[in-house]
Write a structure and sequence with these properties.
By secondary structure, this protein is an alpha+beta fold. It folds into two domains: about 120 residues, Thermophilic metalloprotease-like (3-Layer(aba) Sandwich); about 190 residues, no CATH class. It has eight helices and 20 strands. The strands form four sheets. Strands 14-13-10-6-5-18-19-20 form an eight-stranded antiparallel beta sheet, with helices on one face. Strand 1, helix 2 and strand 2 form a beta-alpha-beta unit. Helix 1 packs across helix 2.
């Protein structure tokens, strides 16, 4: 088995999740991520009381629920790690497991290179960057995002919880992506207006060769412009319909080791980018309950929080 992968698995389980000898670990995987899942399982056997590996058929879209049997199983473990092709982050299964006290780390679309590279980052530095961004957003009313490619978007965030995600999940009921490094929130539903131009990547599509322009009116995507990628995004959202087209999330990347790879788990953590998602946002304090969550990346944006510039052309000023 790959030595670097085993080393990264140990960092993930020991340093980020704080796995203890008396605890039980569940690894939920699918066929495409088997090598990573088995590396975590093997390291888990050396660190805790019981390490269990289960494999399911890959889900079709991010946010689709796992089988009921796996959902039930998740509630019975101290630590649950999910290296899967599609995200289990925004599922009822994850939310219910957390209610039962499980620490859940989701790793949607994780690759070996992402795992090795991003888990080698200095956790203290990521924590510091993340806290600085969180503090800049705290108690704010409005976010305004602009970019040279044409993004010009305003959203109301008054009263919404600002969530720092560092990947450190050591307390009962903690949950988040691993690796991580971002600050995110759910804008007030129906409050977002303007234009988004995704020019980095989009979940389920990958790195964009051509930008995707999305016109947002009262919180919903109304028009998609661009080449083939724009049609792909519209098709993904149309397949679910309704609130799938609602603006669900705004986030800022804070992991200085992350690179744009076409895998949204890493892409949305890239320092100097922001991401905006459509679909489900129950996990972050929103009210959109739909079986999809699609993130898109904007490179080198300028971000204003209540008219104060906190990022200029991708450079954090906080």
């Amino acid at each position: 088995m790959n030595r670097d992968l085993l080393k990264s698995s140990k960092i993930a389980l020991k340093d980020y999740l704080g796995l203890q000898k008396e605890e039980n670990l569940l690894i939920i995987c699918d066929e495409a991520k088997r090598e990573i899942g088995l590396a975590l399982y093997e390291i888990g056997k050396t660190l805790c009381k019981e390490s269990v590996y289960v494999e399911m058929k890959a889900r079709e879209v991010n946010g689709e629920e796992p089988p009921d049997q796996i959902s039930d199983l998740m509630k019975k473990f101290d630590v649950v790690v999910c290296p899967t092709s599609k995200s289990l982050t925004h599922t009822n299964a994850r939310r219910e497991a957390v209610k039962f006290g499980a620490r859940v780390a989701t790793m949607p679309g994780i690759t070996k290179s992402t795992m090795v590279r991003c888990l080698s980052a200095d956790a203290k530095k990521i924590i510091e960057l993340t806290e600085n961004v969180k503090n800049a957003l705290q108690n704010a009313k409005e976010i305004h995002v602009v970019s040279k490619n044409g993004t010009d978007l305003k959203m109301n965030i008054e009263g919404r919880k600002i969530i720092p995600s560092t990947g450190v999940l050591k307390n009962k009921g903690d949950s988040g992506n691993l690796p991580s490094g971002e600050v995110y929130l759910a804008p007030i539903e129906g409050s977002t207006n303007g234009v988004i131009v995704f020019d980095g990547s989009v979940a389920g599509i990958g790195i964009l060769k051509n930008p995707i322009k999305v016109t947002i009116i009262d919180g919903y995507a109304q028009k998609f412009s661009g080449r083939n990628e724009a049609k792909q995004l519209q098709k993904l959202l149309d397949k679910i319909g309704g609130d799938a087209k609602a603006v669900a999330e705004f986030g800022i990347g804070t992991n200085y080791k992350a690179k744009i790879t076409g895998h949204i788990l890493e892409d949305e953590k890239v320092l100097g980018t922001v991401h905006i998602a459509f679909g489900n946002n129950l996990s972050m304090g929103g009210i959109l309950d739909v079986s999809i969550h699609i993130d898109g990346l904007i490179k080198k944006p300028t971000v204003l929080v209540d008219d104060i510039v906190i990022m200029e052309n991708g450079v954090l000023l906080v």
